[in-house]
Amino acid sequence: MSQLFAGFFLLISTLFSCQQPKADFKSLSVADFDSFIKADDVQRLDVRTLAEYSEGHIPGAVNINVLDDSFAAMADSTLQKERPVALYCRSGKRSKKAAEILSKRGYKVYELDKGFNAWQQEAKEIEH
C-alpha cells in the first residue's frame, strides 16, 4: 500500500512540475506607462509591424513584430532579461500576446493597456 501511495505521489508531482510557467505581466494606463518608461533601465518595445512603427512610435522603442514567427528568438537576442520591458502595440491586443510570451520566458513585462492609440489620444511624445 505504501508503494502504491509513493507511486501515486511521484506521478502527481511529475505532472505538476511539467506545467508551463504562468504568464505574469502588468497592464498600465497611459499615465502610468509614461511614468514607468522614464526609468533608465526600462527597455521600450513596440510589437507592431514595421510599417506601423515607421508611421510613429514612442521615443526610444525598438521594434519586434509579435506576429513574426521568430518573435521570441529576436526578443531574446535584443532584450536583456535582467531589465524590465515596457511594450505596446496599436490597441492593446497584440501587446498582451507579446507580454504573455515574454513573461513566460522570464522577462519582467509591463504593457500599455490601450496601446499606441491611447498614447496618441493623450498627446504623448512620439517620434518618426
TrEMBL record:
It comes from the Bacteria. Residues 38-128 form the Rhodanese domain. GO terms for molecular function: thiosulfate-cyanide sulfurtransferase activity. InterPro entries: GlpE_sulfurtransferase (IPR050229), Rhodanese-like_dom (IPR001763), Rhodanese-like_dom_sf (IPR036873), Thiosulphate_STrfase_CS (IPR001307). SMART domains: RHOD. This is Rhodanese domain-containing protein.
